[in-house]
Each structure stands twice: as structure tokens, then as C-alpha cells.
Design goal:
Order of helices and strands: HEEEEHHEHEHEEEEH
Helix content: 25-40%
Distance between the termini: 85 Å
Strand content: 15-25%
Number of helices: 6
Radius of gyration: 29 Å
CATH architecture of the largest domain: 3-Layer(aba) Sandwich
Largest sheet: 8 strands, mixed
Shape: globular
Length: 229
Amino acid sequence: MADTPPDIPTKKSISLRMAMLMFLGVALVSVAIKVGLHWSQIPEKRIPADLQRVLLPTPREIPNIKLVHHDKSPFTPEQFKGKWDVLFFGYTHCPDVCPMALGRLSEVFAILEKREPHIFKKLQGIFVSVDPKRDTAEHLAEYVSYFHDGFVGVTGEAEQIKLLARAVGAGYFIQKPDKDGNYEVNHTTSLFLVDPTGQYVGAISPDGVTPETMAAMLVRVHDHFEPKK
């Protein structure tokens, strides 16, 4: 008995298959174009030109720090959440830069309390000591309250302070003590911003910036992340 010959495609069947493949190919390309157009039309949250020197391209997570609040309670990343935090790194024995910076920040808070109370209620000023050897919780409590009742003083172990400073890019260097044991600390003067989710989002350089301008910048940052409805 002879073997059944294999099916040999005819010209008609070949043409039909090619037509179907071409139709499928065109359909897939059409779908891809539509999907591409859809995604290209989704707006990105771009940083406005006036905030490009303030905000980071991508927010950064704050590491799991374990510091001490000036009321002696633990201060962890959870304390950043729910507020717009303005951090300043310094020390209470600072002869000029720190008092001037905290005084200016106090003026900024006063401006916002009067003009933008809904934003002021979300603000938290945090003074991070880079001199834990001398800056006790009690000393910090007295120091920060002199500038503003709502300011928070933070201290702790040196390694934990370094961990937070490194996360936001704050630099400092403790100088060698003199013969009487006194010493100064060179430190960054920028104000570092942490959003209500606890992420580091940017920094403001206070050099040559008036309290009025700084207040306006904080409003712009707030409205960028929390636009008015």
C-alpha cells in the first residue's frame, strides 16, 4: 500500500497565509503605536526651572537612624513623617553661623505663620547637633527654644549623626581642641528638606537669601509636591 503523500500547499493557500501574517503584523504595529502614544501622553512630574537648584531629581530614603530628641525621647525616621522638615546641622557653641541661621529660619517661620498658616502647620525645624560631646539634650532644649518654640534639637551618638549627615550630603569637621579644651566645628550651612513621607527631597543654600525669599521657596516646594486643588 502506497504511503499517503504529504499535503503540498497550493499557491492559493500560500497567498492566504501571507495575507493573514501581513494583517497580523500590521495589527501588532498599530497596537504598539497606540500603546506608545498612550504612555508618551502621560505627563511627568518635572521639576520647575526655579526649583532645579533646590530639589533632587529623585528623592532619597533616610536611613534607619537612632538619635535623641531634645526631650530625651528617641528620634528615628518616623519623626520626619507627617511634616515638612527643615534640617540644619550645627552646634550650640557656634559663635556666629548657627545663631544667624536659626534666627533667619525663625523669621521664615514667622512669615509663613502669618501668610501661609496651612503650610506653617506642617513645618518642623530641626537643629541637628554635630557636637554630641558638648550638646546634651538639656542644652539643646534650652538653645533651640530661644529661637522658636517649635524647633526641635537632635543629638545622639557620633556615628548616628554621621549616618544622617551623609544621607543628605551635610559635611562637618571637628577641629582639634586648643590648650583649654575649646574647639570649633566647620559645617555645612545649607537647609535640608525632608518631605512628609520621610524622604530627603532637596536643600536650600541660605547664602545671600532673605527670609522673604526663603519663605517663598518653601511655599514653592510645598506646592510642587502638594499642588492646590
